[in-house]
Design goal:
Low-confidence stretches: none
Radius of gyration: 14 Å
Helix content: 25-40%
Strand order of the largest sheet: 1-4
Protein name: Protein kinase domain-containing protein
Number of domains: 1
InterPro entries: Kinase-like_dom_sf, Prot_kinase_dom
Structural class: alpha+beta
Number of helices: 2
Oligomer: single chain
GO molecular function, one term: protein kinase activity
Distance between the termini: 32 Å
Shape: globular
Mean pLDDT: 78
Number of strands: 4
């Protein structure tokens, strides 16, 4: 599963894109634990690298902290 996640991110980076919102909720496993296919979802915040490097904004999900 990890290999497929890394391959997906590598394909995005080769196209000069950054996901900007990658977390476990955006990793989908279809077809079973060992035989299934892994997908990366939720590309709403996906941006070109050049645009991302020009901004100082914080992107993504704020980490959960128990109250």
């Amino acid at each position: 599963m990890l290999y497929e996640i890394i391959s997906g991110l590598n394909n995005m980076h080769k196209k000069n894109l950054i996901h900007c919102n990658l977390h476990d909720g955006n990793i989908l496993n279809h077809g079973g634990r060992y035989e299934g296919k892994v997908y990366i979802s939720d590309f709403r915040l996906c941006q070109p690298v050049s645009l991302f490097l020009k901004k100082n904004d914080i992107r993504g999900v704020i980490p959960f902290m128990a109250p």
